[in-house]
């Protein structure tokens, strides 16, 4: 590295925490800024894909997350009426021992935040950022709603998500397309009710109903493993869902998937659920004047491919690599955009293509899905392609960031990398 910079990172999600750690390790002076007084995770469960695990391994944090989560070997879904297979992705098709890790968002946050607190990274909380402005020397400072300036810094990084107030400061305007369907998420004890602890399972009726179960391992004082239960729902239908009551919803879900009844019995209050809304959102150039955007602030998709946190981790590493490679800040920001451009575009295109087949009001698309997926899945090479897509490895993002290809030992749940022993 040719220059030590003062850098501010806004947001304590996976993107912001990982960026703070990577940048401080690269020698920069980092300040992490969070709008909540007490930093906290938002949401329920997610899958750490091999792409994201590669970044966490670089940080030395993969091992505790593999231990805390649940190994996921398969993504599996059936038509709730006919019983036909409409989704079957197996990580084993990659032939390198790969798997995903179902993880509680709070467990991911806890590991990352503990690592941040163990480093000389300044953390400022309770700061609601409203804008950013440059001082007389051109260095940016964050501006709060009350007019307070936080800074200046050599570089500001926006990791505050899809609703960031700074998106208008990007080099090109944001392209947005809200998605009609969101989802309700709740965490419950997985128990011993016949669910595969190593598979994400889903049931579909057309494309307008989806119910699923994702094992997410252990967290906090819970005595046993947990699962995230999720249910497709349009955000504007949430009030009606609450008014109808849990009993009505449970009856509907169990009609489509009777075996889920024991998990639903553990949901006794609608406030156990978190409502998530989704959108396709893209910054054509994820930077502005001394400002970089990472994670959902730079790009977001539906959760169908399970890439959100993993793409954010790749962004954080790409930006760090670019700042090391380029002494000039403008060139570094362009280099960062170049490192991520094609991978982001590939996955956003895939999300736009596949999402309507699984979450939409279309009657035709799910019919096509149900008739074409089974024969297509039997074609030579299709299993490997689907597993690569879900793993986040299409487009070869790891090579661009000089990361080792994941090579996990599913038998013992340990993480290693091609050509080296387990570390982290």
Proportion of residues in helical segments: 25-40%
* CATH class descriptor of the largest domain: Alpha Beta
Mean pLDDT figure = 91
Number of strands: 24
Overall number of structural domains: 2
Give the name of the CATH architecture of the largest domain: 2-Layer Sandwich
Q: What's the multimeric state? A: single chain
Report the CATH topology name of the largest domain. D-Amino Acid Oxidase, Chain A, domain 2
Poorly predicted tracts of residues: 417-424
Number of helices: 12
Question: What topology does this entry show?
Answer:
Elements: E1 6-10, H1 14-25, E2 29-33, E3 45-48, H2 50-58, H3 62-68, E4 70-72, E5 74-79, E6 85-90, E7 100-104, H4 105-117, E8 122-124, E9 129-134, E10 140-144, E11 149-150, E12 155-158, E13 175-178, E14 182-189, E15 199-205, E16 209-217, E17 226-233, H5 238-244, H6 246-256, H7 261-264, E18 274-276, E19 279-282, E20 287-288, E21 291-293, E22 299-300, H8 308-325, H9 329-358, H10 364-377, H11 382-391, H12 397-400, E23 406-409, E24 414-417
Parallel strand pairs: 1-2, 1-12, 2-8, 5-15, 12-21
Antiparallel strand pairs: 3-7, 4-7, 5-6, 9-10, 10-11, 13-19, 14-17, 14-18, 15-16, 16-17, 19-22, 20-21, 23-24
Helix pairs in contact: 1-4, 1-8, 2-8, 8-9
